[in-house]
Amino acid sequence: MKVNQAEFIISAVGPSQYPDDALPEIALAGRSNVGKSSLINRMIQRKNLARTSSKPGKTQQLNYYRINEDLYFVDLPGYGYAQVSKSKREIWGKFIEGYLMHRELLKLVLLIIDLRHPPSKDDQTMYAWLKHNDVPMCVVTTKADKITKGHWAKHVKIVRETLQMAKDDPLVVFSSELGVGKDELWAMIEKEIDW
Ligand code: GTP
Ligand code: MG
Question: Residues in domain EngB-type G (predicted)?
Answer without folding.
Answer: 22-195
